[in-house]
Design brief:
Length: 156
């Protein structure tokens, strides 16, 4: 049995981790709301595929995963990263995450507008908005997973 007391540094690290997870849970709730609005707009297209509880649940779940994993992509510490040159470069994983977040958010914004103001959009446009949503959250999920895999490989 160790008599070693936790240090203030350990307490601070625990606090930072709790805050980070809490923030990501908030982002996942935003993703769930976005998914709900996109699903609600699609159910108004009269397509039988989109008019089911399973479809709505899938859209909410994908939104939760996308916003939880993809918005907060872990980065390699500068000591682990090996820059190829002195010029600043764009991390492709961060770029993927940010493009995904933009696509998912713009799709949700259009869906919220159409849903709240009871606007009728052409089915072609609704499907295009839905594809922005799906591509966006897939980009977010992919970026989040790739970033975590990259970090694990660098640490191990």
């Amino acid at each position: 049995m160790s008599n070693k007391k936790p240090t203030n540094n350990d307490d601070m690290l625990l606090f930072v981790e709790i805050v980070q997870v809490t923030g990501r849970l908030g982002l996942s709730m935003a993703g769930a709301m976005c998914g709900t609005f996109v699903a609600a707009q699609l159910t108004m297209t009269d397509a039988a595929l989109f008019d089911s509880a399973g479809f709505v649940a899938l859209m909410v779940l994908v939104g939760i995963l996308g916003f939880y994993l993809g918005i907060d992509v872990p980065c390699l510490r500068s000591s682990l990263a090996k820059p190829e040159s002195d010029r600043p470069r764009i991390d492709p994983i961060e770029l993927l995450s940010r493009i995904g977040t933009f696509l998912a958010a713009i799709a949700a914004l259009i869906s919220v507008y159409a849903f709240v103001f009871d606007e009728t959009m052409r089915p072609t446009f609704e499907y295009m908005v839905a594809s922005w949503w799906m591509v966006g959250v897939v980009f977010q999920i992919g970026a989040g997973l790739i970033g975590r895999i990259r970090l694990a490989k660098a640490a191990g």
